[in-house]
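From the shared-data thread, chain only:
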Amino acid sequence: MKEFLLFESFVAHTLVKIFFYLGAALTLLAYAGATLATMFTEGFGAGIGVGFVGLFGVVFYLIMLRVSAEIMIVIFQIHDELKELNGKTPAGQPDGGISAGRNASKQRKSSGQPAGVPQA
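Structure, as tokens:
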């Protein structure tokens, strides 16, 4: 519970899965409802027609819903990997050597040496 309240762990992976299953369930319910409503209002043949054509739309929507959920999960995994890589720094520098590059360019500027010329 402490990790959740202090935002030390992400719940995004779980939420993406929940939203996917919820979206899939609502899609199937809407498909069944539309098919049954058409059967009762327009007749059995029209309901079967809407059900058959709607099935292609449902399959397409479920595939797109799954792809978008996977893309979101991949984005969160990339974030986790980048966070892990940020902890691994070259030459023991706490920020991955970023400040070393900045400090070197500041030293060049203060010495009057052009930025493209290597220091001797």
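The CA atoms of residues 99 and 109 lie 15 Å apart.
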